[in-house]
Amino acid sequence: MHPERNTTSNNDRAVEGTLEQTFDGTPEGVRRALADCIASLRALGVSDGQIVNMEVVLAEVLNNVVEHGYADVEDGKIFLRIVAEDQTLRILCRDNGVPMPGLNAPDPGPPDLDVPLNELQEGAFGWFMIRAIAADIKYERQDGCNYLSLNLGA
Amino acid sequence: MKLETNFYDEAILLVVEDQRIDAANAIFLKDAFAKATSGASGRVIMDLSSVEFMDSSGLGAMVAAMKHLAGRTELELFGLSGAVDKVFTLTRMNTVFKIHADESTALDGLTKSEDSAVRAS
């Protein structure tokens, strides 16, 4: 799956383009899709700081689909669209796995570090990191599909 | 998950050779770490210089690795950059692990063990 790329640029600083791809909802599928997206965004001229934010957020979003949405589905697919416009990267992720609990995107808050070592949490960092980095997070369930959209600023 | 083990007097240095610690390989880190540190005494230092990306599963595996030391010693890290540094900073796990600025600071005062070849085999 190769991302489609349409680049238009009014000046040297403008980063514009749309990437779209559909891939397997597996850890390996996610790894490849991430690598493709990051390479394409670099080629579009997205800054290093935004690339780091994008890779962290995308990895968590996509891994959540694999681990939860498609936990009991073998051949699930994930559709991903990233639109770069001005200084913002808009992400849309669609899958047809199980809905998010309570039909809401999780908001677990920061990890509790004020505990004995053996009680330190080993999970639930993902949604905290997504919310710490991304803005305008919207989740919708429609026609058996999960739609998650979020924005990354400059 | 590849961990290269280097023996020092009173410390072991584990060099992570993978470029990513993520959902696809994090489960192997815990095993590799347990194997590499079994019977070890002294400080445990991990070199993350080769790691370009870590996700929440990778971070969870790092926490599990630290727990494996059961408070006997800290898990010390160096070579955090880019996304790895971001993940530790966002979650404030950089306050839980002992993080060194660079390799020379981390290994300051340590001498390589003479019998390291034997112990590494």
Structure keywords:
heterodimer, A: 154 residues, alpha+beta, five-stranded antiparallel beta sheet, 5 strands, B: 121 residues, alpha/beta, five-stranded mixed beta sheet, two-stranded parallel sheet, 5 helices, 22% strand, globular, disordered C terminus
Explain the layout of strands and helices.
The complex is a heterodimer of chains A (154) and B (121).
Chain A: E1 17-24, H1 27-44, H2 48-69, E2 77-85, E3 88-95, H3 126-133, E4 135-142, E5 145-152
Antiparallel strand pairs in A: 1-2, 2-3, 3-5, 4-5
Chain B: E1 3-8, E2 11-16, E3 20-21, H1 26-37, E4 43-47, E5 53-54, H2 56-68, E6 75-78, H3 82-90, E7 98-99, H4 103-106, H5 116-120
Parallel strand pairs in B: 2-4, 3-5, 4-6, 6-7
Antiparallel strand pairs in B: 1-2
Report on this model:
The complex is a heterodimer of chains A (about 150) and B (about 120). Chain A is α+β, with helices and mostly antiparallel strands and about 150 residues long. Helix content of chain A is about 30%, strand content about 25%. Chain A is globular, with a radius of gyration of 16 Å. The relative contact order of chain A is 0.17. Chain B is an alpha/beta fold. Chains A and B meet through helix 1, helix 2 and helix 3 of A and helix 2 and helix 3 of B.
In terms of per-residue confidence, which ranges of chain A show pLDDT below 50 for 5 or more consecutive residues? 7-11
SS summary, helix count of chain B: 5
What is the count of β-strands of chain B? 7
Which outline of chain B best applies?
globular
Cα(first) to Cα(last) distance of chain A is: 27 Å
Q: How do the strands of the widest beta sheet of chain B line up side by side?
A: 1-2-4-6-7
What is the distance, rounded to the nearest whole angstrom, between the alpha carbons of the first and last residues of chain B? Answer: 18 Å
Low-confidence runs of at least 5 consecutive residues of chain B:
117-121
Helix and strand string of chain B, N-terminal first? EEEHEEHEHEHH
Q: What composes the largest sheet of chain A?
A: 5 strands, antiparallel
Give the spatial strand order of the biggest sheet of chain A: 1-2-3-5-4
Structural class by secondary-structure content of chain A: alpha+beta
Quaternary status: heterodimer
